[in-house]
Amino acid sequence: MGAEVLTVEHVAFRYAGIPVLRDVNLRVEAATTVAVTGANGSGKSTLLHLLAGVEEPAEGSVRRRAGCRLALLPQRTSGIDALPLTVAECVQIGRFRPRRRLNRDDHAAVSTIMERLDLVHLARRRLRELSGGQRQRTLIAQALVQVADIYVLDEPTVALDATSRQRVHDLLAERVRAGAAVVYASHDDADAALADRTVRLAGAVEYTITDAPV
Ligand SMILES: Nc1ncnc2c1ncn2[C@@H]1O[C@H](COP(=O)(O)OP(=O)(O)OP(=O)(O)O)[C@@H](O)[C@H]1O
């Protein structure tokens, strides 16, 4: 196990005063995977938003290791369909930096991830012209092409067929072997079982953390 990259302590979160999470504690180390599971509405997306800094906790703290880079695949991404982006452009966005052109490494990383996720033949298609699974693969590619220390992915394999799921898990395993931490939400027990640790949310008041058997 590596150094801690994310530390969640006594976190509570409420939407308009309605409790969603209470007293959540979690430590995520480098080179590990954590699956966040639980029923619809149990707070998985909310927890991931807190980890990524999209939301702030009402109580407690979420600390990311200083200087650590985080890539997020949100669950709700419909806004991007309104943009006239091709698949290739959408993946390239993962490598954009202010005031800097994409360099050779960026283009190589984009090509590689598009090959690995079987997107090359779709490169010039607009996002809104894709099937659900093709669109999801494109957004996963945009997240995984980023150079990050923590990948936070909300239901990354939803809408994917078995081959694509396996490809995504292979890519995640590679990121973890390279030292990154991966946190993903999932409804699928088989998907969750691939993680080193599972956080099961059970509504506003309960959660459990389970380490995978070694
Ligand atoms: N923007 C919001 N405003 C108010 N309530 C919200 C908001 N977003 C989520 N909620 C509520 O917070 C709770 C947790 O939602 P969240 O999306 O985190 O659950 P989830 O476990 O990711 O669900 P799912 O499995 O359906 O994706 C739910 O009861 C939901 O109705």
Structure description:
- With 214 residues, this protein is of the alpha/beta class.
- It has 6 helices and 9 strands; from the N terminus they run E-E-E-H-E-E-H-H-H-E-H-E-H-E-E.
- The protein has a 6-stranded mixed sheet, sandwiched between helices. The protein has a 3-stranded antiparallel sheet with strand order 2-1-4, with helices on one face.
- A hairpin with a 5-residue loop joins strand 8 (197-201) and strand 9 (207-211).
- The mean pLDDT is 92.
- The site of adenosine-5'-triphosphate has 11 residues, from helix 1.
Give the strand content: 25-35%
| Number of helices, where a helix is a run of at least 4 consecutive DSSP H or I residues | 6
Just give the CATH class of the largest domain: Alpha Beta
Rounded to an integer, what's the Rg over CA atoms?
17 Å
- Major sheet summary line: 6 strands, mixed
Separation of the first and last Cα atoms: 13 Å
Helix content: 25-40%
- Spatially, the strands of the biggest sheet line up as 5-6-7-3-8-9
SSE topology string: EEEHEEHHHEHEHEE
CATH topology of the largest domain: Rossmann fold
Domain ABC transporter: 6-212
Protein name: ATP-binding cassette domain-containing protein
Family: Belongs to the ABC transporter superfamily.
GO molecular function: ATP binding; ATP hydrolysis activity
